[in-house]
Write a structure and sequence with these properties.
alpha/beta, four-stranded antiparallel beta sheet, six-stranded mixed beta sheet, 10 strands
């Protein structure tokens, strides 16, 4: 569903992403981990078409994100680490705005889905309030609702749990699990290693723009020589990169 081939992004002399190649299957929950400044956010911006690569390609469902960007972006939902919302809209107006960006969706079906999601995220009583009065957690839940209303085939998520209380975090994890079971491919970047360990089918660890290890938790454990939690594996691999 996601194919990344020889992806490179340079900013002057800085190589932020260095010859990255990955494939994420339909329904796969894929975690993308790395220390600060490793190239995670740049990779995500390349996947979503927000940046143009220096070299290489990204395809979503067979569509090149640069050449066939309309078809590719119709399949994507993107949740950034610092999402922007329109404060002078109500929550419901914002969701209607999002739905109207996708001309092929069934409006009656989306209205039903919006109502279901608002109820599930506990936003039903706040849907007619201006977003400027929403707490940080409510904003984050509204962003997740907006990401789901067009029923994406691919979800690209950067730090999903920021600002969420334990109940809401559990709810988000349950929803993401269910979406993966339904065939949605999930590309998740996070510093919360316990979330990646709990949810991901496969994990890639990136440092200095290069993937230094990729596989299941068991495969990462074998390649690192560490039998333990993902945190221990991550620290061993990234510290070795620093040492080198």
């Amino acid at each position: 569903m996601i194919r990344i081939q020889n992806l490179t992004k340079q900013f002057g002399d800085l190589v932020a992403v260095d010859n990255l190649s990955l494939e994420i299957s339909r329904g796969e929950f894929f975690a993308f981990l790395g220390p600060n400044a490793a190239g995670k956010t740049t990779t995500i911006k390349l996947l979503t078409g927000l940046l143009k690569p220096t070299r290489g390609t990204v395809s979503i469902g067979g569509y090149d994100i640069q050449k066939d960007y309309v078809q590719a972006k119709m399949m994507i939902s993107y949740i950034p680490d610092f999402p922007y919302l329109y404060d002078k809209l109500t929550g419901l107006e914002f969701l209607d705005f999002i739905v109207n960006l996708y001309p092929c969706v069934d409006r009656q079906k989306q209205r039903k889905l919006i109502n279901e999601l608002l109820n599930r995220f506990g936003l039903e009583q706040h849907q007619n309030h201006l977003i400027e009065y929403y707490s940080h957690g409510m904003r984050q839940k509204l962003v997740f609702t907006a990401a789901l209303v067009h029923e994406p085939k691919v979800m690209i998520i950067d730090e999903p749990m920021v600002g969420l209380d334990p109940y809401s975090s559990r709810l988000v994890k349950d929803i993401l699990r269910q979406k993966a079971k339904e065939g949605v491919s999930i590309f998740l970047s996070t510093h919360t290693l316990s979330v990646a360990e709990e949810l991901a089918d496969r994990i890639a660890i990136i440092d200095k723009g290069k993937v230094i290890s990729v596989g299941t938790l068991k495969q990462l454990s074998e390649s690192s020589g560490i039998r333990g939690k993902l945190e221990d594996i991550f620290l061993r691999l990234t510290r070795e990169e620093i040492a080198n």
